[in-house]
Amino acid sequence: MRALLVGTALAATLAGVALAQVREVGNVVFDGVVPPSPELQARLAPYYNARSAVFEDWLPDGSILIATRFGETNQIHRVARPGAARTQLTFFSEPVNSAYAQPGAQRFLYPRDVGGAEYYQAWLRDLSGREVQLTAPNTRNENFKFSKDGRLVAWSQVTPGDPDYDIVVANPADPKTRRTVHEGKGAMAVEDVSADGRRILASRYNSATHVELFVLDVASGRLTPVGPQDRKAAYVGAKFSGTSVVALSDYGTDVTRPVAIDLANGPLRDLEPGARWGSEDLDVSPDGRVLAQAVNEEGWSKIVLRDVATGRVLPGPTLPKGVLTGMGFSPDGAKLGLSLSTSTASGDVWSYDLKTRALTRWTQSELGGLDPARLVEPTLFRYPTFDGRSIPAFIYRPKTARSGKLPVVIQIHGGPESQELPNFNPRRQSWVNELGAAVIIPNVRGSSGYGKAFMDLDNAAKREDSVKDIGALLDWVAKQPDLDASRVAVVGQSYGGYMVLAVAGHYNDRIAGAIDLYGISDWVTFLQNTEGYRRDLRRAEYGDERDPAMKAVFDRIAPIRMSERMKKPMMVFQGANDPRVPRTESEQMVRKLRGQGTDVWYVLAKDEGHGISKKANQEAVRATEVAFLKKVLRID
Q1: In what order do the strands lie in the sheet with 268-270?
Q2: Which residues does 257 contact at the CB level (< 8 Å), separation at least 6?
Q3: pTM of this prediction?
Q4: Which of 22, 66, 178, 491 has the fewest CB atoms below 10 angstroms from its CB?
Q5: Using an 8 Å Cβ cutoff, are 305 and 299 in contact?
Q6: Residue 323: which of 365, 295, 351 has the closest Cα?
């Protein structure tokens, strides 16, 4: 690849380093970075050549829509039958990661943005490639649902700077019929459309543990609350089922489980009393009689089928030990489509026949030249933290360890209402095999998957308690005979990037280096500059900077205000178009650290947003990460 010097204006916006230290390769700008060797790049390439298949939807003819990658980005493909070829249907430089089949037509809807900006537009496309734009320009659109006859499609729409989503409907045969049927307040979403198209099941997301549910009358635009109103609760994945609504809810319990709510008089019926583990996804058969729930048991997925009328468990699929990435009933209700990723397999699509109980594989994804025998299955463990709680985590250890103690990479997830899962992850596998490192992925307080009480432990003024959980992990590492506590690096993205910065501030002497990917460096500037459609939602989780007491907390815990403690080398990555954590968060941190003499590598992807979606960018950034880790962990 040819390295190009960028112009002085761009160089100045990055970090003010000498022009000779700034290189541009493709759409990625490297500022003060020591380039990875060609040999390292060649060794890492197979990890990112691996591809997966993710279930998206069933077409009316019984074929399946999947998301997979042949080139630079994920696109939508059709698989006609088990084992058949993947026929590509969309062809764009930007990724297309989801598709929704239109009932009664060999046609599907797909959303797409530009450069990772997340202002999704939607198109309706048939299998011959003819398509029409459905959504209005200069809007963000999501949560698309068709009526069962395919004559109505509903979704939520928001405009730049506006925190309030509207509910919009259209006749798919004529997008010009698009009209707003409800001017919403807050983060409104479409959950389902009734069989006759006259009612929409809608939700309002206030926080991860407070999601309201409503029935929206399409003709009048009137909302009617669904479910008990005596306390806050979350209702997720709701579907119409005859005269009832079926949803996942934590009403009256610590974990989400399936419930049925009678629309006539409102009582809630628990379909899984005493649930130990929470469910994360739900679908209901077209006749409303059977539900499928995806249960999360310590990070691994399990599908449970139930009779909606009684809650009785029905025979269901026995899956390999892995993580579900998609699930949905076929139009006739006879089969359940699903996709699954494991630690050692990149992910494929299957179907389960409810009558014959046969689990049939539809796709066979390639590992891109990786030797499956070298891939590592993680081990689940728990470690004690400062207040007596135990924190769950997974550890990957090399199958063939080098002499001496292992260096350690701790990867911290974003969210914070998210969870590290034992799925296929080429990045972790490359750290294990190419660095010879132990990789630890903790689920600190605030993570999802362990109930709402655990998820609320880091809210607002309790924010730094989750950072203390990483301090406790460093204590645990120091007690392990095979781990080298003097060679520990921390890596995290988004909220995990904030965690990395906070760890670098509080535990500088106990880490060798840090990689911060689009992390929050100052809570006040983050909340002021994040996109308007998500600002109030983040205030509900993190706290409101307009409240003087909360602002005082933010000023105390902001990583940029403890930068003088951050002496160890740091790599910072940012997508230029990130609407969630704007690039200003990274660049003000880079300037502050460099101004005090801290060694910082800065990498900017000009055509990415909140993450890295394009293969060439992934390979360039991930190789730079490994080169940085080799340096700070002192690996030859």
Answers
A1: 235-241, 244-249, 257-262, 268-270
A2: 248, 249, 250, 270, 271, 272, 275, 278, 279, 293
A3: 0.94
A4: 178
A5: no
A6: 295
Q: Give me the DSSP letters along 107-136.
A: EEEEEE-STT----EEEEEETTS-EEE-SP
Rounded to 5, what percent of the chain is helix, strand, coil? 20, 35, 40
Can you tell me the distance from the alpha carbon of 603 to that of 28, in angstroms, rounded to the nearest whole number? 7
Quote the strand ranges of 208-288, DSSP E: 210-217, 223-225, 235-241, 244-249, 257-262, 268-270, 279-284
H-type helices in 479-567, by residue range?
Answer: 495-506, 523-529, 532-542, 548-557
Phi-psi region of 175 (alpha: psi -120 to 50; beta: other; left: phi over 0): alpha
Instruction: Return the SS3 of 591.
Output: helix
Asked if residue 416 has a cis previous peptide bond (ω within 30° of 0), the answer is yes
The Cα–Cα gap between 408 and 480 comes to 11
Instruction: Please give the Cα distance from 138 to 117 (Å, whole number).
Output: 12
* Residue pLDDT, tens place only, 222-268: 999 999 988 999 999 999 998 999 999 999 999 999 999 999 877 89
491-534 per-position pLDDT tens digit: 999 999 999 999 999 999 999 999 999 999 999 999 999 999 99
The Cα 148–Cα 240 span in angstroms is: 11
Instruction: Give the pLDDT confidence of 463-476 residue by residue, as tens digits.
Output: 999 999 999 999 99
For the chain, the first-to-last Cα distance in angstroms comes to 25
Round to whole Å and give the CA distance between 156 and 146. Answer: 13
Give the residue-averaged pLDDT of 391-412: 94
| β partners of residue 491 | 411, 515
Q: Which two tokens mark 472?
A: 């406790």
Range list of β-strands (E), 317-456: 323-329, 335-342, 345-353, 359-361, 379-384, 390-396, 406-412, 438-442
Instruction: Please give the Cα distance from 45 to 274 (Å, whole number).
Output: 47
